[in-house]
Amino acid sequence: MNLEKVVFGFFIVLAMTLNFGFFIGDIDNPSHHHVYELYAAIVVSLIATVLKFGDRTHVGAILLSTSLAADLQLITAAILWAALDGKMDEASLTVYIVSLSGGALMANFISVILLIAETISQRR
Amino acid sequence: MDSILFLILRRLRRPLIFIIVSFGIAIIGLTLMPGTDDKGHPWHMSVFQALYVISYTATTIGFGEVPYPFSQAQRMWMTFSIYLTVIPWFYAIGKIITLLQDPSLRLAMSTERFARSVRQLQEPFYILCSYGESASVLAKALDEKGMRVVVIEPQQERLTELELSDTRSVIPYICADAKLPENLIRAGVHHPLCSGVVTLTDNDEVNLAVAVAVKLMNPDLPVLARAERDDIAANMASFGTDHIINPYTLFGDQLAIRVHAIGTYILHEWLTDIPGDTIPPPETPPRGQWVVCGYGRFGKSVIKNLEREHISATIVEAMPQLTGCEQYILGSGTEAKTLIEAGIESAVGIVAGTDNDINNLSIVMTAYELNPKLFVVIRKNKRHNDTLFKQFNADITMQPTDIIAHECLAHMISPMLAQFLALARNQSNSWSNQLISKLVGKVGELVPETWAVTIDQQGAPAVAAFLSKGHPVSLYNLTQDPTDREQQLDLVPLMLLRDNMPILVPDTFTTLAIGDRILFCGRPAAKATLPILLDHVKTLAYILDGVEVPDSIVWRWLKTKLQANCASHT
Fold it and tell me: Does residue B510 sit within a domain?
C-alpha cells in the first residue's frame, strides 16, 4: 500500500462526493444547497488539482484536465453567488449555481472513473 | 516547453497544497466567528468577505477591518489566521524563487530555448560542434558573409566569449556535449535547412564521434571534420565524411604552393578570408638548404612538400625513436651547438615546428643570431601566445586555427569555390597573377565576396525565361549595372560549370545555357544587386535591349496600339 496513492484517491473521491452533496436536492430550493458545502467542494477540488500536477502520463493529463474543468465551474458558481447575492430572487440564483455545480459533478465523475480504470489496469 | 512546465508544477505541489489548506481553514473559521454590524445586530461574515479579508492579510497587504470593526472573537481568529496563512505564503514564494534559480531548471530552459530558436531558423545554417580557436574564426567569417551558424560547445567560458562578441545575426548556442546525438538533434541535424555540420575540436575522438552520429542520423548532410591522426582520418573517410581537414597536411601543401606559385597562394588566401579584410603581401620562401626542427606531424608534412619542390632539408629531432626519423641531428634545436651542426650558417631557411611555442621561439631566436638572413617559418600552437609571435614577426607563422578556418570556408561558401581553388592550384603562377590583377582592378584590395549562381527556374527566373524563349543571354549581360547598362557591376565570373565541365575565368561573351552554374567574385554591393537582374524580366530586358518594358496591362495595351499606329503610318 502506498500512502501517496491513498491521499490521491481520497481527495479525488472526496471532491466528487462533496460536489454531489451540494448538487443533490431541488434545483431551485436554496435550503437544499448549503454554502459551506460548495466551499468545501471548491477547496477539496483545488487540492485534488494540485495533487494531479506533474504527472506526465496520458491518463495523468486527462485527470488534470477534468479537475481543471470542475474547478472552473465551481469557482464560476461561487463568483456568481458572491456577486449576485441579494440582487435577484434566491430561487433563480440557486438554479444557476446548482446547474453549474452539476457540470462540475460530471467532470469529477469522469475523474473518478479514470482513477478506477487506471487502478483496475494495474496488474499487481 | 511542456517538460519544464510539468517540472515547475511538480515542484510547486507541496507549497500550493499548504496555501490551499491554510486559506481554507482560515476562511471557514472567519465566517463562523460571531461579529456585530454598525447597528449592533449580530452578524456573520459571508464566505466571499472572509476570502477577501484573508487574501489581503496573508499577502501582508492589510487593508484593516472591513466592512465593520471586528468583534473580539473575530480578532482572535484573525491572529491565528495570520500565522496560519502568512507562513505558507512565504514558503511558496521562497520555493518559486529557488525553483527559478535551480541549475537543472535553468539548464532545461536554456536547452529548450536553444532548440526552439533552431527550429525557428528560416535560412540555411551550419552547425559548429565546438567554439574553440578555429571555430570562432570560422563563425565570425560566416557571420560576416551573412550565413547563419548554430554552436554546440561544452565549455561555458568559450560561450561567454561568444555571447560578448559582436555578431550581425543571432548565433544560437548551447552548453552541451556534441558527442551526444540528442544535442545534435536539438542543434538541427534533422532541420530541412541545415546545410552541414562542422566539427573542429582538437580531440580527434570527439570529431569522429560527431561525424559518425551525423552520418547515421542524416546521411545527406555534408560533414567537415578535423582529424590529425591518419587512422582517424581513414576511419572518417570510410563512412563518407565529406571533408577531412588536417591542418598539418594543409600547411605543408600551402608551403609548397608558396615556394612554386606565390600567386596561387595569394588567390587562395584572398578568396577564403573574411570579407572586408586586407591580407599582407606574403613572401616567397627561398630555394636552398633548409633546417627543420621537429619531425612530428607538422615537420613530416613540411619535409614531404619541400622534397616535392626539390628542396633539401636537414632534420633536427630530439626523440627520433618516437617519430621514426632516419637521417637527423640529435637535439631540440634550442641550443646553438645543434643548429651549427645542422649547418644553420649556410642554410637559407629554418622551420621551427615543435609542439611547444616557447621552444619554437627559442629555436628561431638562436638561429637568427647565427644567421640573420634566414627565412623563418614558425609553428604557433596556442593563441594566447599571439603577442610573443607578433613581436618576433617571422616570415611565415603557421597557425592551425587560421588554416582550418580558411579550408572550411572554401568548402562552406560554395562547393564551387573549393573546386575552383583546386583547379587554380594546377595553373601557372603567371595565370594566378593575371587573375589577381584583374580582380584587384575590379573589386579593390579588400577581401571580396564569393558566391555561386545557378541559371534555372529557381536561381535566375528572368534569365531562364529569356533563354527558353530563344533569346541569347551572355555572361557579359550579367555584369551590366541594372540602373545604367553602360556601367558595369564590380564583379568577375571566376568559373562556369556546364554539364559538370568547369571553365576557369570564362570569357564574358560566352552565351549562357539553362543548367549553367557560375561562381562570381565581387564587392558586397554587386552581390546584392545581381539578384535584381536575375529575377526581374523587366530589368533583364532593359539590360539586353535597352528598352523599358511597360508594367501594367493598360500600358502594355497602349504600347502595342501605338506601335501598330506607327507601323501603319509609315
Answer: yes
What one-character DSSP code corresponds to residue B227?
-
Same domain as B321, residue B202: no
Q: How many Å apart are CA B541 and CA B528, to the nearest integer?
A: 19
Q: Does residue B181 lie in a domain region?
A: yes
- Compute the distance between CA of residue B367 and CA of residue B411 in angstroms, rounded to an integer: 38
> Does residue B535 sit in the same domain as residue B482?
yes
**Tally of domains within chain B:** 4
pLDDT tens digits along B91-103: 999 998 998 888 8
B12: domain CATH number?
1.10.287
Task: Please report the sign of the dihedral spanned by the C-alpha atoms of residue B170, residue B408, residue B187, residue B133.
Answer: negative
pTM value is 0.70
B28-34 long-range contacts (CB < 8 A, ≥24 apart) are: B28/A36, B28/A39, B29/B77, B29/B80, B29/B81, B30/B54, B30/B74, B30/B77, B30/B78, B30/B81, B33/B71, B33/B73, B33/B74, B33/B76, B33/B77, B34/B71, B34/B73, B34/B74
Nearest neighbour of A47 by CB, restricted to B3, B20, B27: B20
Q: Which structural domain, as residue segments, surrounds residue B479?
A: 448-545
Q: Is B169 exposed, middle or buried (0-12, 13-18, 19+ CB in 10 A)?
A: middle
- B314 forms beta bridges with B291
- B9: closest CA of chain A, how far (Å): 6
Q: Which residues of A touch B (CB under 8 A)?
A: 35-36, 39, 43, 46-47, 50-51, 53-54, 56, 78, 81-82, 85
Ramachandran bin of B469, using left for φ above 0, alpha for ψ from -120 to 50, beta for the remaining angles: alpha
Question: Alpha-carbon distance B57 to B120, whole Å?
Answer: 46
Q: Say if residue B150 is in the same domain as residue B66.
A: no
Do residues B338 and B366 both lie within one domain? yes
Q: How many helices (H) and strands (E) does chain A have?
A: 4, 0
CB B507 within 8 A of CB B449: no
Structure confidence by residue, pLDDT tens digits, A19-51: 999 999 999 898 999 999 999 999 999 999 998
Mention every residue, 6+ apart, whose C-beta is less than 8 A from residue B519. B414, B416, B417, B420, B450, B451, B452, B493, B494, B495, B496, B497
Minimal Cα–Cα distance from B92 to chain A, Å?
13
Instruction: Please report whether residue B437 resides in a domain.
Output: no
* Test mutation, A45, A50, A58, chain B, max B CBs within 10 A: A50
Pairing outcome for strands B42-43 and B35-36? antiparallel
- Give the pLDDT score at A100: 94
Q: Which of B18, B22, B47, B96 to mutate to test binding with chain A, by most A CBs within 10 Å of its CB? A: B47
B564 in a domain, yes or no? no
If you count them, how many residues does chain A have? 124
All residues of chain A having their beta carbon less than 8 Å from the beta carbon of residue B9 are 53-54
Average pLDDT over residues B185-194: 92
* Domain boundaries, given as residue ranges, for chain A: 3-121
Distance CA B304, CA B257 (A): 13
Q: What is the ipTM of this complex?
A: 0.85
Strands (E), B429-490: 449-454, 480-481, 484-488
Q: Which of B1, B12, B18, B20 should we substitute to test contact with A (largest number of A Cβ atoms within 10 Å)?
A: B20
Residue A123 main-chain phi, psi, to 5 deg: -95, 75
Residue B536 and residue B453 in one domain = yes
Where residue B221 sits, what CATH number does that domain have?
3.40.50.720
Residue with cell string 591522426: B229
